[in-house]
Amino acid sequence: MINKRRSTAVLLGLLAATALAGPPPASADETTEPAAEPPKVELVLDVSGSMRARDIDGRSRISVAQQAFNEVVDALPEETELGIRVLGATYRGKDKKQGCLDTQQIVPVGPVDRTQAKAAVATLRPTGFTPVGLALRSAAQDLGTGTTARRIVLITDGEDTCAPPDPCDVARELAARGTRLVVDTLGLAPDAKVRRQLLCIAGATGGTYTAAESAEELTGRIKQLVDRAKDTYTATPTVVDGTAGCVDAPLLSPGVYTDREEFSTHRWYRVPVRPGQELRASVSIALDRPVRPDHGVLLRATTGDGRELVRGVDAGSGRTDVISAGLRWSDAEGSPAPKPSEGTLVEPDIVCLVVSNSFAPRAGTEARPGMPVELTVGVVDASPAPAGPGLGRGWLLLAVLTVAGLLTGLVAGLLTRWWVATWREN
Asked: Which residue windows are transmembrane per the record (predicted)?
């Protein structure tokens, strides 16, 4: 009985001590990272009266756009949230003031109900004015703000007929706000004024412009842009202005950058790399206008005095909308970084990065602004080259090639003698 009372007293004491001490601290395993935001894209479609024109594969512009939207919705990545906004789709009157307010979101940004989205697009009929600036501003509001970049894909066949607000000014305004918004533009009419305006909108936000002259081109390009959002939405590239030489080139830290490069030119940048570190860089140039086939892009790392360290190159035939190249370099690959003496800091080497291209415009294509360039820069601890049997260098490679050549010659000789002997017998 006494033991029971003692046990009860001990238990009550432990409970009281626990209560006074409060809840136990949360361990590191109990903390959860906030869920990453999904990529968000809004398609903005011009449904103004000019979309009735039947000049794309013998079909109306609106029917081609509707088909493209259906195929894009069907192929939409599961993790991507999509919205659709239209402009010039409802007002049939001639009051410009009222017609220039005509923009509506027909599919809210979020997980897509494919049947509902395609049904909403199927009912569209070309109607009114072209308030592009207002539609862009509204689309930015639809996408909201957050930690990730948003993407607007504008499809139109004409320039804004309702300014103000001017669409270029709206694009600059959105970029200046730091809204992490990229606007890509697609033109359905080969018109110089439309091209200039769409280039201006895209350039202000780090986006791309493409002229779509067939149903296949339009569908393929929208799919590429929507699909690209899931890979690039986590960071908005920093706008940077490369120079014509390394001496005064901008100094880049690890990150993603965007620039413009004119046809057949070079753009220079500088990257600090400490001993024992490795530079990893890649460049992509978007073909946002017609160019001649057989082109290429070259990415080089050089010293300040112009000595080439390493290069990466890629070539294209005009069948893709992006061409890329990459490189890796370290001053002592695989060696650990030297330990500085106390109170001193090892100064980094300045590596010059130069982006070159061999693009040539097709007849009638404007050269300015330059092609959109996306440059990714990374600096990490140098890693040793993968271990291998050593076939790539030295006497062993020579011996292997010699033996292979002798065996190939022996087999070829035996086969030739057999064939000649057989031919003579017959």
From this structure: 395-420
How far apart, in whole angstroms, are the C-alpha atoms of residue 88 and residue 154?
A: 13
For the residues 171-190, what does the mean pLDDT come to? Answer: 80
What average pLDDT does the segment 323-352 reach? Answer: 64
**Out of 28-32, 153-157, 162-166, which region has the weakest mean confidence (pLDDT)?**
28-32
Taking only the tens place, the pLDDT of each residue in 356-396 is 877 777 776 666 777 788 888 888 777 554 433 444 444 56
How many domains are contained in the chain? Answer: 2
Q: Which H or E run contains 64?
A: helix 61-74
Query: Looking at residue 57, what is its pLDDT?
Result: 84
Q: What is the tens place of the pLDDT at every residue in 201-230?
A: 887 787 778 888 888 888 888 888 887 776
pLDDT at 270 over 90: yes
pLDDT band at 31 (very low <50, low <70, confident <90, very high): very low
* Cβ-count burial 162-177 (b if 16+ within 10 Å, e if not): bbebbbbebbbbbbee
Indicate if 198 and 259 belong to the same structural domain: no
**Pair (254, 166) in one structural domain:** no
Residues 144 and 224 in one domain: yes
Q: Are residues 227 and 259 in the same domain?
A: no
Residue for token pair 């062993």: 396
Domain containing 196 equals 40-232
Domain match, 217 and 307 both: no
Q: What is the CATH number of the domain that holds 191?
A: 3.40.50.410
The answer to whether residues 195 and 290 belong to one domain is no
The helix-helix angle for 132-143 and 192-205 (nearest 10°) equals: 30
CA dihedral 301, 259, 182, 271 (to 10 degrees): 40
53 touches 134 (CB < 8 A): no
Q: Are 42 and 104 in contact (CB under 8 A)?
A: no
Q: Both 219 and 322 in a single domain?
A: no
Q: How far apart are CA 424 and CA 312, in angstroms?
A: 55
Q: In Å, how far from its chain's centre is CA 32?
A: 29
Last residue of a domain, one of 195, 215, 232: 232
CA–CA gap between residue 129 and residue 159 (Å, rounded): 10
Backbone angles phi and psi of 241, in degrees to 5: -120, 100
* Cβ–Cβ < 8 Å for 315, 299: no
pLDDT of residue 91: 93
**Residue 164: cis peptide before it, omega within 30 degrees of 0:** yes
